[in-house]
Amino acid sequence: MYELPRHTGHGRVWTETLPRLGQLADVVVGDLAPDVWIMDGHNGDPDVQGPVVMVIYEVNWGTPDFDKDHAPGFVDGIAPATENAVRRADHIVTGATSSKLQIIEAYGVPANRVHVVPFGVDLNVFHPKGRSTGSALLRARTGEARPYVLFAASLHPRKNLRAVRAAVTGLAKRGFPHVLVVVAAPAPDRQDSSDLEPEAFAELPGYPGRVVRFVDPSDDDLAALMAGADAVCQPSTSEGFGLTVLEAMAAGGAVIVSNRGSLPEVVKRGGRVVDPTGEAVEYALVDILTHPGATKRMRARALRRA
User: Fold this and answer.
1) Which of 52, 164, 226, 267 could form an S-S bond across to 271 if both were Cys, CB 3.0 to 4.6 Å?
2) pTM of the complete model
3) Is 111 exposed, middle or buried (0-12, 13-18, 19+ CB in 10 A)?
């Protein structure tokens, strides 16, 4: 499980979870016979002996909005593999109630076999103390101090960077000086994400110099960028959990998320929940930037929630 890329949400969950499980029991990564297996449930039936707990993040496929955004063949592979894993599992762990309901509906699994265990954040890394550091990182990259809006996710179309770009363009038209900072990992459903990069990192139309890219920052630098942003946006069109959003909340970020999937459940009153459109994100950004008192209270709620 440690081989999952750390820049993905799945990888971050496992690299944080396994050491903590090791404080409670012996964790063996390999082929030895354990008392119980815990496995990523999107890899199919593992063909092992003994009880198995599968971790399932979501089962959104089969809906037009989900399928159209994914690389050809991805759904054809993950859907049967996940179903086989679910059928094999003695118990299933997922991060959100919305995902639990998906699993029950899709596979007819008894509710008492599906357990909601929200994913967590390392609060020694993600905290609001790095606000000035985030601004300094941007200044070092661009040569000047600028307020900024942060998008931190994969380049996958369902993460909806397009809506964030439209929203920050709208801010510029209104006279706000903000730049868009993009921390984007490769899309995990395809071998090559380079065809997604030109649109993602292009200049905002009519407002050059407003997009700043950070490539593979350390966790400390990512936490600082989250803390220093005037807002962190993730208006995904679907989301099984939204670990990046929880990290941003732990960093004291003012988060804007879509009203899709698990995001409203994760954020609750710790952020703004809107339709996944550029217009809706822009409106939320303006509200956050022009009502500092309310935004300060929202940031405090986000910290408590995280």
Assistant:
1) 267
2) 0.91
3) exposed
